[in-house]
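Worked Example 4.2. Consider the chain below.
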Amino acid sequence: MFPALLPTYNRTDVAFVRGEGSYLFAEDGKRYLDFGAGIAVNAFGYANPALIKALTEQAQLLWHTSNLYRVPGQESLSQKLVASTFADTVFFTNSGTEAIELAIKMARRHHFVNGQPDRFHIVSFEGAFHGRTMAAINAGGNEKYLEGFGPRMAGFDQVPLGDLDALKKIVGPHTAALIIEPLQGEGGVRPVAPEFLRALRKLCDDTGMLLIFDEIQTGVGRTGKLFAYEWLGLEPDIMTVAKGIGGGFPLGAVLATAEAADGMTVGTHGTTYGGNPLAMAVGNAAIDLALAPGFLDHVNKVANYLHQQLGALVAGHPDLFEGVRGQGLMIGLKMKTPSAEFLAAARANGLIVLPAGDNVVRLLPPLTLSEDEAREGMELLSKTASQLDAQKAAAQ
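Applying the procedure from the previous section yields the following structure tokens:
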């Protein structure tokens, strides 16, 4: 019999029933230290009092009205984001992949209203992940995600990450925008050279293309700045945001300059649920937490400790690890042995870590992770590594 729940996930046989701070509790009562945060979503930990207060207070007042009317929470959150970023304007979605869809539409529409309707191609980079909708999988270019869904959509080109010569060969009068993650997440916490990102900015400036940053995973404090572009000394024209911006509540956003958004007039885009009062209450509370004095200092302090300790862990287990990479609390352990083995062993020890491409174990703990919790996490990672080394030695 076909299962009642569509079998599109290869799920681990663990069900969590409660969360508190940086910890998850399974239905059998076992406690886990969570270095995954729901894939960077639970940025402020579980059962965060400020987020619970915002959600429950709003839930008693009004859940949904639609975007046919003003939503005061949208107005306040958009003002906070505009005041804190490069952007002039914001649109709220339910998810990251919806934000990607709008970013693509916005870039194409910009050129359309400026007399260049044939300028609709979007260039992305190998190893990218931009979501699972049809446009997003075509932008991402991963054959595994494209297989079986018909021919590739027109208007999406891809080049190797970091290859400026290949990029210059493929862009032309038909190219509307470049889209890139400033630090690839699903692709394996793969860093992008700052010089390459600056070269993309210059190329866009020289040719009139728009630069889209996908900060769905890197945004809202994950790298130690509110957004990763702040480390680079440059600004995108359009930026997609999700995951941490809702602290666990489904929420996404597109931030853009006035010039990039000039084609998005009444009727060109919409959403039924996006930016509803519940989402906006939580989003406002989440951004207030991220902007609070000292919050990003804490993220960087804990991140610096983890990067230092992980470097020692890698050096101490040369048969397991190839290296550590990433920025802030978005960290990847590049493995020499299968990453799935490490994931399972860590979970058995009570630590949740995540898979990523390129045989990488990904660490995305809550941004509220304490120094004591970071030390506990390192102890569990070290224990796991020692166990796997011992198993490998016994098998030889």
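The domain at 49-291 is CATH 3.40.640.10 (Aspartate Aminotransferase; domain 2). DSSP finds twelve helices and 17 strands in the chain. Compare this with Example 4.1 before moving on.
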